[in-house]
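Subject: Predicted fold for threonine-phosphate decarboxylase, 320 residues

User T.R. writes:
Posting the sequence so we have a shared reference for the thread.
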Amino acid sequence: MRDHGGDIDKAASRFGRADWIDLSTGINRRPWPAAVFSPHALTALPTRADAARLCAAAAARFGCPQDQVLPLAGASAAIQLLPHVLPGRRAAVLSPTYNEHAASLRAAGWQVAEPSDPDALAGADLAVIVNPNNPDGREFTPARIAAIAATVGHLVVDESFADPRPDLSVAGARPDNAMVLRSFGKFWGLAGLRLGFAIAAPDLLARLAERAGPWAVSGPALEIGAQALADAAWIDDTVVWLSEAALHLDQIVAPHWPLVGGTHLFRLYDAPDAPVAHALLARAGIWSRVFPWHPRWIRLGIPGNREEFDRVAGAFTAAG
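User M.O. replies:
I've generated the structure tokens; pasting them so everyone works from the same file.
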């Protein structure tokens, strides 16, 4: 099993408490206030009209043509399907990054390099960049993305954490040989809906849709997603909240563990011993994310309210 955040069952079994604050993911803990969905969304098979409404809302939000948007059961669904619809066998994933990209490519028989230098992506049949990157928040401008795209056969740009940073997105000005992935669950805080989007040329999306099969997105996800994507006031307020909350978290943590980087949805710190730091927070009921390939890095999502911030601060006070 590949390691991921969100494994709160593991936290409970190891530390034996129930009142967990799960900061092990980059999921917004102040979610969009989903209304009760219609009986149609729950009882009927999703229709083309349902999907079209969601695609229209996504296209308006991301600034791309509607026929270049494909809803899927999370960006992770696209990551699993893409190796089977793109040509070639030599891939390069800019690393370190979200581990599913390289893992899904290898599982499909691709040869995968994991360089840390973006110039080393050149010549790959398929290159993958997460922008901004998980877990360190590394950023690339649209101009840099376009320059990289010109050196590879196909480029996948995973923008799962880009909603608070539209200036980084290439969804609205996508290079011809690029596919953009967008998550819904992270920024809108509704990860359980399992909703995300692939943005690409219509012919490529058609192949991806064929792989995904009929009814790839649930009725409630189609309905709630369309409503949430159109809620401009909530989106604007949430971008401001997250930017301020991320800075507040840094004020609490960075004096103890220096900041490595991050995004509006998570922060990455350098602890002297990440497993020890992980356990320190766990004893206070705070679940964090550590990485088996780096002994010092620890990642925290953004607390969602004053009580959660107070518990994080209290954990450091208790530790002295």
